[in-house]
Amino acid sequence: MFSIGELSRRTGVKVPTIRYYEQSGLMAPAERSEGNQRRYGREEESRLTFIRHARDLGIKVDAIRELLELSAHPEKPCERADAIARDHLALVREKIARLKRLEAELARITELCGDHAVGECYVLRSLSNHDLCESDH
Q1: Which sign, positive or negative, has the C-alpha torsion 96, 97, 98, 104?
Q2: Cα 90–92–94 angle (5° rounding)?
Q3: Looking at CB atoms within 10 Å, which of 19, 32, 43, 115 has the fewest?
Q4: How confident is the model over 71-108, as pLDDT tens digits?
Q5: Number of domains into which the chain is organized
Q6: pTM of the predicted structure, to 2 decimals
Q7: Residue 86 CA to chain centroid, in angstroms?
Q8: Helix orientation angle between 4-11 and 15-23, rounded to the nearest 10 degrees
């Protein structure tokens, strides 16, 4: 059995985050020692590792909750898990497209600025006037 500090070290998840996951129901409340310290085993470590990896991939807590529920039923088809991953992939691709538009616009406005005085600075003018942007970003 591990203390919450040891579980944190083993998984790379901060102690307050572990407590939050317990409060939000992603993890069951920990067993308590006679001294009322939280105690965790390998199962909780595996679950927390799963949660951390999903969060590292940017998956939202509600989707993680659903994936955890699905993982508790290994006999079920994985259609729903696939759908959750595909939906998240679509969101990531949308974010990447938006970031590429931001990158292009920032590159454009910095190239147009040059070595002018602040009063002639294209960066400052474009930030003040969205009409100077080439695209909706």
Answers
A1: positive
A2: 70
A3: 115
A4: 999 999 999 999 999 999 999 999 999 999 999 988 88
A5: 1
A6: 0.79
A7: 16
A8: 100
